[in-house]
Amino acid sequence: MNEITPSEDTLAAADLGSNSFHLIVAGLRQGQLQVLDRLREPVRLAAGLDKNQRLHPEARARALACLERFGQRLRHLPARNVRVVGTNALRQAQGTGSFLRDAEAAIGHPIEIISGVEEARLIYLGVSHSLPDAGGRRLVVDIGGGSTELIIGEDFEALYPESLYMGCVSFSERYFPDGQLGKEGWRGAEIAAGLELRPVQDRFRRLGWESVAGASGTIRAIREVLQTNQWCEQGISRDGLQKLRKTLQQAEHVDALNLPGLAEERKPVLAGGVVILWTLFDTLGIEQLRVSDGALREGLLYDAIGRIQQVDVRERTVNSLMERYHVDTAHAFQVEQTALRLFDQVRKDWKLEDDENPAMLRWAARLHEIGLVIAHSGYQKHGAYLLANSDLPGFSRREQSLLAVLVLGHRRKFPLSGFDSHGKAAQRLCVLLRLSILLHRSRGPEEPPTIALRPNGTNLELVFPEAWLTRLLKITPPVYPAAWPAPSVSSDCWPV
Known about the structure:
Elements: E1 10-16, E2 21-29, E3 32-41, H1 57-74, E4 82-86, H2 88-92, H3 97-107, E5 112-113, H4 116-130, E6 137-143, E7 148-154, E8 157-164, H5 168-175, H6 183-207, E9 211-215, H7 217-228, E10 236-237, H8 238-251, H9 267-284, E11 288-291, H10 296-308, H11 313-324, H12 329-346, H13 356-367, H14 379-389, H15 397-408, H16 423-439, E12 452-456, E13 459-463, H17 466-473, E14 488-490
Helix pairs in contact: 1-3, 4-10, 5-9, 6-9, 7-9, 8-9, 12-13, 12-16, 13-15, 13-16, 14-15, 15-16
C-alpha cells in the first residue's frame, strides 16, 4: 500500500441529498478517521423539482449558495482527497447540465451522480465502520429524501444492496400535501410503501440477519423524538414507533404537532419517514433498530481511503465482469499493458495527467470484448450496453458512461457523439485503446513492436522499428525515401 503523505491526510466527502446537503471533513490518523468538521444545510432539492422533474430557480439558488460555502471549506484540500456525490434528486432531475457545471464551479470539485445501488453500498460501508461488529449478518436501513436503501451485509461487505423509490420528502409531498395528516393519506402512503417493498421482501427474509441498524437524518430524528418522550430507551423499538405513528395520525396536521425533540425543519417530512420505517418494521418483522451516526458520507471517506491506498473496489468490479463474461484474460491484459505504454508517451502532450485517465484506459482494455458473450456481430455495441446499464460497484454514472463509450469506440465507427459529455481526453483515450487492440490483432503471444508516438496537433504519428515493419510488409528498405528515419503513419481519421 502507498504511504499517505502529511499533505494528504485530510479527506472530505459531500453528500448532495434530496433533503439536505452534508459535508464531512476528517483527518486520517494511523488508519483511523477523526472527524474535524461537519456542515449540513436543509436545501430540500427534491421539493424543488416540478412535475417535469425540472429544478425550480429557488431550489437551484439554495443549492449553489450552499455549495459555495462548502467550497470555501474545501479550497485547500487536494482534489484526489475530496468526493462529492449526488443521490436520488439529482438522479431524477432533468436538464441538469448547466446546473451541474455551476455546482462544480461553486464547490470546486467534480460531482458524481451515483446509482441507488452504489449509494446503498457506500451507506453500508459507512455504517459498518461506525458501529461495533456484533457478528453475523446485519440489515441496514437508510431513509433519504427521495429513496430508501436496504442492505444486508457482513463485516464491511454489502452482500445484497437495494434502493427503493420512496423517501421522506417524496412521500410527504404526495400523501400529506400542505402538512395534512388525514386517514386517506396514511392509508395511501402505507399501501404504496408496501407495494414498493414487495419485490424484495422475500429475498431479504430468506437471507436473514442477526442485527438491524438505521442511518440517515430521518431515522436519527425519529430516535430523538422517541427518546425525548421516553417511548423507547435505546435506538428505535417497534412499540415506540407505533406510539409516534398514532400521535401523528391524531394530530391531523403538522402545525398541530407539539412533540418534544422534533426539530421544526423536520415537521414537513416526518410523516413520510414514519410511514416508510413503520412499513419496513411491519413487513420485515423488525422489533428493534440500532441507530448509526455513520452513513453515506462516512462510506465515501472509507472508499476514498481505499482508492488512495490502491484498494479500489472498481478494480474488483472489473475483474468480476471479466470472469462473468468469460473474457480472454491473456489477450485483455496484453492490450492493457500496450495501451498503458502508449499512454505514458502522450500523457503530457495530450493533457491526460488526471490519475483517473490511466485507470479508465486500463479497465476499458480489460473489458473491450465482454460483448462477445452475446454475439460477435457488433460486439462493441453489446459490450457498451452492458457497461452502461449494469450495477457496477464503485463506479459513478459518469464513469460508467465513459467506460461504455470507450468500449463502443474500440472498433468500427468512431462514436464522436458519444464523447460529447466526456470531452477531448476521452476521445484520446479511445484512440490509444484502438491502437493497442490493432497491435494485438494476431492475438499471438509475441510482444508488439516498440513504437514511438508523436502527437502533432490533430494528427498522431506512429514510428515503427524499420526492421519490424519491413519484415511485416515483406518489402525492402529502398522502397522508403532515404530522408525518412523510419516508416510512419498518421491517424488523420481520428480526432486526437
